[in-house]
Amino acid sequence: MNGHSGADAIALLKADHRTVEKLFDAFEKAGDDDLEAKGTLARRTCEELTVHAIIEEELLYPVAHKQLEKQNEIDVDEAYVEHFLVKTLIEKFDTLKPGDHGFDATFKVMSELVKHHVEEEESALFPELRESGVDLVALGEKLRARKAELMKKLDQAGSKLVGDRSLSFARAL
Ligand SMILES: [Fe+2]
Ligand SMILES: [Fe+2]
């Protein structure tokens, strides 16, 4: 590992991916009747995914679109479409509560979609970006700063939503 490899944009985004995968696993292991755990895990997953999607769309995908070879631009276009689908599923949790019919199914489909998307990013988009010569350390700094800002907003919104089990936090961002 060289001095900067822990800090660049790709390392940061991959760490986010691993965090979300752990949440998917924990949800799968939660007892069928443990609505408390399922609700908390779904909320945390949606928060992580929302912040991650925002920083990628604001800072990474535009750079990728500009820098990648013409034949690889399709990977960025597909990534935007997959994000759109994930966000549509996240919105369903505005009204779905743990124990509701469809709650587990929605979470499951969301996790499958995200796993597919992560696989595409890590096997195609990220390596292409690394080859393009973009300054990934500088980009990593920007991603980290924006993520910290969004997490702070989320904390502030969360403290106002205590007792509210919906996932309407996304509107606070
Ligand atoms: Fe993504
Ligand atoms: Fe990602």
UniProtKB/TrEMBL annotation:
Name of the protein in question: Hemerythrin domain-containing protein
Species annotation: Paraburkholderia azotifigens
Record domain Hemerythrin-like: where: 9-129
Domain of life according to the entry: Bacteria
InterPro entries xref list: Hemerythrin-like
